[in-house]
Design a protein that fits this description.
Layout (H helix, E strand, L loop, with lengths): L1 E6 L4 E6 L5 E9 L5 H5 L7 E5 L3 E2 L18 E3 L2 E2 L12 H8 L2 E4 L3 H11 L2 E7 L4 H9 L10 H4 L5 E3 L4 E3 L14 E5 L5 H9 L3 E5 L5 H7 L3 E4 L10 H10 L5 E4 L1 H9 L3 E18 L5 E13 L6 E7 L5 E6 L4 E4 L14 H14 L2
Parallel strand pairs: 3-4, 4-6, 5-7, 6-8, 12-13, 12-14, 14-15, 15-20
Antiparallel strand pairs: 1-2, 1-9, 2-8, 3-9, 10-11, 16-17, 16-18, 18-19, 19-20
Helix pairs in contact: 7-8, 8-9
């Protein structure tokens, strides 16, 4: 079925839908990973975006029920050069077209994804609209222009959990009445803010021995204090960090008394809470092959990334940069010089890989244990 992708600047790309009739919209970005499309599609950080894969063949190993990062497909649309209809992998339970069709997310192929990626690199990420059939391209451009701008958009509250939950290793176990909650484990008690958290973060923190409760994004510092945690964690998520004002206020309060860490959007929220600034990148960092240097060890890590905003801590003498992106020299991590506070912009949970940065969770656990004397 014929399909058209229209960008807000009037650029048109023609292709074919591999999910049947439909429409999709969102900010069009590109991801440089060769694999990991299922993790990418289910990552809540892609809410409000349509993902272009730069690798030309996508879908060859199919889809399975285990490689998911949330309870549903989060991306607004999927754009590839060629979609494999007959996957070959022993773990596969369905094809990529079947998977997206089942959940009602549009996928388009036959697009010159190299040309689209180059366009986005030159002109920046753009709002886009795609549709099937004999549609008027000019009307699609108008629809693209009507989509919400990512700047100023609070998407974390849209994707966060509605009520607190405990992670049981595979899926959330929701708590209907907080009066029934009690810390059950023996490890450090960790209050986790869910701004669109990836499940692999929870898997890895559980493996480090944390006793966790996951909280909605709107939870206040006072509500967190009532739980008497040992530490606080700020998760990844979509949208503009400056728009998540409740979370910034909570982090500004909590870092004074608790060890605290953040990943991706959590890194940005923590940066704002400490007096830094955030700004939108031209086309963002999305992929699982981005080089980052640990400024302390001087080791270079190949990292998984997914963010459209960046943190600026210039002039904040009490903060120390810990990681830097080697592609564009942007900040990838910082720590507080006097308090147990650290954050990184990239994704150490690596879903999809690589695993170079996974030590972050051990570093966080050690920081918390030193701070609380365990």
């Amino acid at each position: 079925m014929k399909a058209i992708l229209a960008l807000e600047d009037g650029t048109i790309f023609k292709g074919t839908s591999f999910t049947g009739q439909g429409e999709a919209s969102g900010e069009v970005i590109f991801n440089t990973g060769m694999t990991g499309y299922q993790e990418i599609l289910t990552d809540p950080s892609y809410t409000g975006q349509m993902v272009t894969m730069t690798y030309p063949l996508i879908g060859n190993y199919g889809v399975n029920p285990d490689d998911v990062e949330s309870h549903k497909v989060q991306a607004g649309g999927f754009i590839v050069k060629e979609c494999c209809k007959k996957p070959s992998n022993w773990r596969s339970t369905m094809s990529l077209p079947e998977y997206l069709t089942e959940v009602g997310v549009m996928g388009i192929e036959g697009i010159d994804t190299r040309a689209l990626t180059r366009h986005l690199r030159i002109h920046g990420a753009q709002r886009g609209f795609m549709a099937t059939g004999d549609v008027n391209p000019e009307e699609l451009v108008k629809k693209a222009k009507s989509i919400e701008n990512m700047e100023g958009l609070n998407l974390a509250d849209r994707v966060s959990c509605d009520k607190p939950y405990i992670w049981d290793g595979k899926a959330p176990a929701y708590i209907d009445d907080m009066k029934d909650f009690a810390w059950a484990g023996t490890g450090p008690k960790l209050a986790v803010f869910d701004f669109g958290i990836k499940w692999n973060i929870l898997r890895l923190m559980a493996a480090e021995g944390f006793d966790m409760i996951i909280l909605p994004s709107h939870f206040t510092a006072a509500q967190v204090r009532e739980l008497k945690p040992d530490a606080v964690f700020l998760s990844n998520g979509p949208g503009d960090p400056a728009a998540v004002t409740t979370a910034v206020a909570a982090a500004k309060d909590l870092f004074e008394d608790y060890p605290i860490a953040g990943i991706c959007l959590g890194h940005q929220i923590l940066g704002l809470a400490l007096g830094g600034k955030t700004y939108k990148l031209k086309f963002g960092h999305h992929g699982c092959n981005h080089p980052v240097i640990d400024l302390h060890t001087e080791k270079i890590e190949i990292s998984s990334q997914n963010h459209g905003f960046c943190v600026d801590i210039e002039g904040l003498s009490f903060l120390e940069p810990t990681h830097m992106n080697l592609n564009d020299r942007t900040l990838e991590g910082f720590r507080h010089k006097d308090k147990p506070v650290l954050a990184i912009q990239h994704h150490p949970e690596a879903g999809p890989g690589p695993h170079d940065s996974r030590y972050f969770f051990t570093r966080f656990r050690d920081m918390v244990r030193v701070s609380i004397g365990k």
